[in-house]
Design a protein that fits this description.
The protein has helices at 247-256, 260-271, 314-321, 338-356, 358-376, 396-399, 402-419, 421-434, 442-452, 463-471, 485-500, 506-509, 514-522, 530-540, 548-560, 567-576, 580-590, 594-607, 613-630, and strands at 44-56, 61-72, 79-84, 88-95, 102-103, 106-108, 117-122, 129-135, 143-146, 158-161, 181-189, 195-198, 211-221, 227-230, 233-238, 241-245, 279-283, 292-293, 298-301, 329-331, 438-440. The chain is α+β, with helices and mostly antiparallel strands.
């Protein structure tokens, strides 16, 4: 279902057909600039945000003030419109810098289920600065608050944000659109025993004292605003890179991610200097719903990629790649998200190739492509195009699919093959340089391509081929598929075993990396016999595996095949881990039978308190749908 071995920020789960692209609503949306935001950046834009916040773990609340520096584009404008979700606004004041701040009138519209509440502030004098006092709800969709019991160390509470796509508005009132960029600073107070970090050059030497200051000097879009707090310690990897994690995880994480500085070097060689200062990683508790999130200077990462052999560190390559594609050059709205994720998946492959070789990159591509081809079978044609239709009535999280990641990167590989790296690499670097710290649309990229790449070899790509990638459903028939030698070995071993019941020798399998085990299991077909499952389990200990990529494939196969011995460990896995990509396939298999559904309900009841709101919603939807079809 989701990108297999590769990391990706959002790890889409395919939307059910009923939620797929609808034609744009007849009524004119209030959201004209970016369908996912009420903001009106053609009238006024936030240039800088200064936060003064207090974290309250008991109330599960962030409270304080946000001060905005405004650039009024339209000299006749009289309102500032911001996005909010479940926020309580306490006051709004204008600050012209001359005398006492003046209170302003404001109105909070009724909440839209997808887009939240539009906050309209009357600002007839067009003040240069404006301050909002507010607090969050304990249910804020962009925050997760974890009791100590849900952490590794079990001593201190933990909290973290996940702002992409449109959840920043649940913890700060904002122009919550990727088309607006602002610099930010923050002063955050908390209980003194937790460390607070933000996506803003957190200081590895900072003293843990409950009083923290941050500054992000580069303009960022709202979805890259991030905060986390907990029992966090720092382990350096290089002068500009390191790992933050709970004490029990820190050494393991630093070892697993020890190649990070080499990755930065490989990316810089291809696409120019890393522009963000530090590149640190924060290892979150297992409840983090995604693989990673590319928060600038501080990637948030799932602990499930720490498997001991670095075989899943392409997640780091992916999040690091976002420092160019996404964070430096940003999709202007969420329908352009392939500009973030397709480019990043492509760059991730190049970094992986530079560090771990062509074969590793090819294996990851082969898994990704197979998953995508399976996924598009259930998708509406409009959603299979790179250029998505306007997301007028849709949650951008639901519209996101592997098309953005895998088809997007496949398109760039196609261009690379047609033009050659000596032409394509400088072209891509030029795209990043020429649009640095800007937001861009698909049309802008196509124009740039026509001006700067196509003329280099006028017959290399036909207009119909471009159209097939950008606007047509499916994968073009002329696209060349990834094919790795490492998987041929696995295929041979699997076929031999299913014919003769003779497993490959330890000498062969001891060399296998996660991707090869994934391929071994993926090719097993719908069901295996009890004897076959027992034999595999005895040889490879799949039941109880600490490797989530293997677990997410083994347990569904075992459940489908009626291998009940695997159920207790499958249950423990979905109770312990909250990363959607890894656990949803297991739930999906369980809910197909009445006994499985009952087991899934039970597991969910136990796991729920530790799940992130995003994971909870996904599992609830699956259980509700299973109930409905059981009736
Ligand atoms: Zn990503």
């Amino acid at each position: 279902m989701a990108v297999a071995a590769a990391g990706c920020s959002k790890e889409p789960t395919p939307a059910p057909q009923s939620q797929a692209a609808k034609p744009a609503a007849a009524k004119a949306p209030a959201r004209s600039h970016d369908e996912s935001s009420y903001a009106e950046p053609d009238k006024v834009v936030v240039k800088d945000l200064a936060l003064d916040l207090r974290l309250d773990f008991d109330k599960k609340e962030i409270a304080g003030t946000a001060t905005y520096t405004l650039d009024w584009k339209d000299k006749a404008a009289t309102q500032l419109v911001l996005d909010t979700r479940d926020l309580t606004i306490e006051s709004v004041q204008a600050d012209d810098g001359n005398g006492a701040p003046a209170p302003l009138q404001y109105a909070l519209a009724p909440s839209d289920k997808v887009f939240g509440s539009k906050l309209t502030i009357e600002a007839p004098t067009r003040p240069a600065r404006l301050r909002i006092a507010y607090h969050t709800a304990p249910t804020a969709s962009g925050l997760q608050w974890l009791d100590p019991a849900m952490t590794e160390g079990k001593q201190l509470p933990f909290m973290f944000s996940q702002s992409q796509a449109i959840h920043a508005r649940s913890w700060v009132p904002l122009q919550d659109t990727p088309s607006v960029r602002f610099t930010y600073s923050a002063h955050v107070v908390s209980r003194p025993d937790v460390m607070v970090l933000m996506s803003a050059n957190s200081d590895p030497q900072a003293e843990r004292d409950g009083d923290y200051s941050f500054s992000m000097e580069h303009p960022i879009p709202s979805y890259l605003l991030a905060i986390a707090a907990g029992d966090l310690v720092f382990k350096p990897i290089s002068a500009r890179s390191g790992v933050w994690a709970e004490p029990a995880m820190a050494d393991k994480a630093a070892k697993e991610f020890e190649d990070t500085e080499k990755m930065i070097g490989a990316a810089e060689q291809l696409y120019g200097p890393y522009r963000w200062g530090r590149y640190d990683m924060l290892v979150l508790p297992p409840s983090f719903p995604f693989g990673g999130m590319e928060n600038p200077t501080l990637t948030f990462a799932t602990p499930t990629v720490i498997v001991g052999d670095k075989s899943l560190v392409s997640l780091v390559a992916h999040e690091l790649a976002h420092s160019w594609s996404g964070n430096l050059v940003t999709n202007a709205s969420w329908k352009d998200i392939w500009l973030n994720e397709g480019f990043t998946t492509y760059v991730q492959g190049r970094i992986t190739e530079a560090l771990y070789g062509q074969e590793m990159a090819e294996m990851e591509r082969e898994i990704d492509q197979a998953d995508l081809l399976a996924e598009v079978k259930d998708m509406s044609p409009a959603d299979q195009a790179l250029a998505l239709p306007p997301l007028t009535e849709r949650d951008p999280d639901e519209a996101l699919s592997n098309v953005a990641y895998v088809k997007g990167s496949w398109f760039l590989q196609f261009l690379e093959q047609r033009f050659g790296r000596e032409v394509f690499d400088p072209f891509l670097r030029g795209w990043f340089d020429d649009h640095a710290f800007q937001s861009a649309t698909t049309d802008q990229f196509v124009d740039y391509l026509k001006k700067n790449l196509l003329p280099k070899a006028p017959n290399a790509v036909a207009p119909a081929e471009l159209d097939a990638w950008l606007n047509q459903p499916g994968i073009p028939a002329f696209a060349s598929k990834a094919r790795s030698r490492g998987f041929s070995i696995v295929d041979t071993a699997r076929i031999a075993w299913s014919g003769s019941a003779k497993l490959p020798s330890n000498q062969v399998t001891s060399e296998w990396v996660t991707q090869q085990w994934v391929h071994f299991l993926s090719g097993m077909g719908a069901r295996l016999s009890q004897d076959q499952l027992k034999q595999l389990d005895a040889a490879y200990h799949f039941t109880g595996t600490p490797n989530g990529e293997i677990a997410m494939r083994w347990y569904p196969l075992a459940i489908r095949s009626g291998y009940t011995e695997a159920w207790p460990e499958a249950g423990r896995f979905i109770e312990r881990v909250g990363r959607r990509k890894l656990i949803l396939p297991i739930y999906a298999e369980l809910v197909k039978t009445p006994e499985g559904l009952a087991f899934a309900r039970d597991a969910f009841a136990k796991a729920r308190a530790g799940y992130h709101p995003i994971t909870t919603v996904s599992v609830e939807e699956m259980l509700a749908k299973a109930d409905k079809s059981a009736q």
